[in-house]
Amino acid sequence: GKSLDAAVDGPVWVSAAPPLPATAYEVTVEATDRDGKPHSLTGDFTAAEARAGHSPSTDAIRGRGNLVGGG
Questions:
Q1: Where are the beta strands (DSSP E) in the chain?
Q2: Across the chain, what does the average pLDDT equal?
Q3: What integer pLDDT is reported at residue 61 of this predicted model?
Q4: What integer is the mean pLDDT of 11-34?
Q5: Measured in whole angstroms, how far is the alpha carbon of residue 2 from the centre of its chain?
Q6: DSSP type of residue 51
Q7: Is 19 exposed, middle or buried (0-12, 13-18, 19+ CB in 10 A)?
Q8: Which region, left, alpha or beta, applies to residue 35 given φ > 0 means left and ψ of -120 to 50 means alpha?
């Protein structure tokens, strides 16, 4: 996939720029738990084509302190 710079702002993942429509991306998240143990999660998504008059957006969905979905 393509690279898209981003940062975590509290519980939210914020990209530096909007994803390009119809473009595949790979997401890798690395975190350390309360016990100091490292964790890594990798996933991918393809940004949808924006319909005329609509702007694309990206959201992360959290559940019980964990990322459970994104889109």
A1: 6-9, 12-15, 24-32, 38-46, 60-63, 66-70
A2: 76
A3: 55
A4: 84
A5: 13
A6: P
A7: buried
A8: alpha
**Short-list 2, 43, 42, CA closest to 21:** 2
Tokens coding 48: 């949808």
Q: How confident is the model at residue 65 (pLDDT cuts 50, 70, 90)?
A: low
Measured distance CA(61)–CA(66) in Å, rounded: 9
- By residue count, the chain amounts to 71
Distances (CA, A) of 14 to 58, 62, 67: 8, 14, 13
| Residue 23: Cβ-neighbour burial (10 angstroms; 0-12, 13-18, 19+) | middle
What pTM, to 2 d.p., does this model score?
Answer: 0.56
Q: What does the alpha-carbon distance between residue 12 and residue 34 come to, in Å, rounded to a whole number?
A: 19
